[in-house]
Amino acid sequence: MKDITKKYTNGEVTVVWKPNQCMHSTICFKGLGNVFDPQKRPWVTPEGATTEQIVDQIKKCPSGALSYFMNSETDNESLKVEAETIVETMTNGPLLVYGNVVIKDSTGNLTKKNNVTAFCRCGGSSNKPFCDGSHKKIGFEG
Fold first, then answer.
1. Of 49, 44, 69, 74, nearest to 59 (Cα)?
2. What is the CATH code for 86-138?
3. What is the spatial distance between Cα 86 and Cα 91, in angstroms, rounded to a whole number?
4. How far is CA 4 from the centre of its chain?
5. Fold agreement (6-73, 86-138)
6. What is the pLDDT of residue 83?
């Protein structure tokens, strides 16, 4: 699966979307439809709300597919969550890990994540170890 990253900016904040991580929770467009609208192209239009509203909504993304950085930051790679790591099991869904995490895949490649990372629990994801929303399609309970 190709690792795609798309960026959308309003000049003050840049929204970063990684579709391969998206678990299609719909929280983004149900919470801020003026910015996130999957029926439009581009589906992210950051001009539709204030920077504060956008940042608040992105922080609710359970998969971490949506993230952001302030354009005034010179090195957006240095943005890290300064908190303890918290693990939460979503009913009938993924395992959510909040905080800084380094994931090592079966071939030894390292991927750094921060904010929220959703790991597959159902076994149906085509993007393992990450959740892609397959739990909804297969009726996973647990």
1. 69
2. 3.40.5
3. 16
4. 13
5. no
6. 54
- Cα separation, 50 vs 11, whole angstroms: 11
Q: How far is CA 115 from CA 42, 92, 140, in A?
A: 24, 21, 25
Q: Mapping DSSP to helix (H, G, I), strand (E, B) and coil, where does residue 5 land?
A: coil
Would you tell me which CATH number, out of the four given (3.40.50.1100, 3.40.50.720, 1.10.1510.10, 3.30.70.20), belongs to the domain 6-73?
Answer: 3.30.70.20
Predicted local confidence at residue 4, as pLDDT: 82
pLDDT < 50: residue spans in the chain:
76, 78-81
Tell the residue number behind the tokens 């950051």, with chain if given.
46
Q: Please name which of 75, 122, 125, 129 lies closest in space to residue 102, comparing C-alpha atoms.
A: 129
DSSP three-state, residue 76: helix
pTM: 0.60
CA 137 and chain centroid, separation: 19
pLDDT given at position 106: 79
d(CA 142, CA 135): 10
Q: What pLDDT score does 66 carry? A: 93
